[in-house]
Amino acid sequence: MKLLSRQEEIVLLSIWRLGGEAYGVTIREYISKITGKYWSIGSIYVPLDRLIEKGYIDYYFKDITNRKGGRRKRYYNLSSPGMDALQEARELQNSLWQGFPDFAIKK
Amino acid sequence: MKLLSRQEEIVLLSIWRLGGEAYGVTIREYISKITGKYWSIGSIYVPLDRLIEKGYIDYYFKDITNRKGGRRKRYYNLSSPGMDALQEARELQNSLWQGFPDFAIKK
DNA sequence: GCAATATTTTCTATAAAATAGAATAACTTG
DNA sequence: CAAGTTATTCTATTTTATAGAAAATATTGC
């Protein structure tokens, strides 16, 4: 199986983190906040589409809307293969980083 | 600062792991072993070149040779910015994965 | 010395992923 | 239904990843 790319890892984890509240805008906000940098619209939606193609996530539309405008929100869920891919990524990371010095206090 | 790509992370960590023994071939062997998959020659040397350009690693030639053929081996070292980039990648990962369920026994 | 052989890196081409943001769609309110 | 707002789709460009042939350079044996 191919390794998860960085952006795939981040997007999958943000969907996991956001639980039932994961759609384009909240995902983008979360990623911007946790990484501390700017993410364009495309840099969120393009990987989302690819993750759907790969079967790592699925989605549904929630029609309840209490806010003003906007299209239907597309809510994402991790699929079972998506969870497996994350698990596998984690195991690789554990091996790779094993013993790496931890500079607890930084800056 | 831009995030490290997956392959950059892996290559940097393998140089760190191999200490004074990091050159193209040993890096490739290490990465193949730890990931359990095939890596072409280009998939090692191309990111190495880019990491040099970015200043994350530097290199020197060791002329001592006791093996049969081959060009001069190019040995790589992590630079200080390279170490910083790793540290930053790790901090992001810690945030992202915080609380992720750990399936200790798998398969 | 030099042909044969082995090892390592350089080079170049192609595919995949990341990034950017304009355009489009769709919902609410008045 | 027009105006205003929010969300996604679409498309183009840049950057990374991947592959492996070609070139370079070393040792061995005659």
Produce the secondary structure layout.
The structure is a homodimer of 107-residue chains.
Chain A: H1 6-18, H2 24-35, H3 42-53, E1 57-62, E2 73-78, H4 80-97
Antiparallel strand pairs in A: 1-2
Helix pairs in contact in A: 1-2, 1-3
Chain B binds a DNA duplex (30 and 30 nucleotides) through residues 5-8, 23-25, 39-43, 45-47, 49-50, 65-74.
What does this structure look like?
The structure is a homodimer of 107-residue chains. Chain A is mainly α and 107 residues long. Chain A has one domain (6-91): Winged helix-like DNA-binding domain superfamily/Winged helix DNA-binding domain (Arc Repressor Mutant, subunit A, Orthogonal Bundle). The first copy, chain A, is 51% helix and 11% strand. A two-stranded antiparallel ribbon of chain A has the order 1-2. In chain A, helix 1 packs across helix 2 (24-35) and helix 1 packs across helix 3 (42-53). The longest helix of chain A is centred in the C-terminal third of the chain and has 18 residues, at 80-97. The N and C termini of chain A lie far apart (38 Å). The interface between A and B is medium-sized, with 25 and 25 residues. Chain B binds a DNA duplex (30 and 30 nucleotides) through residues 5-8, 23-25, 39-43, 45-47, 49-50, 65-74.
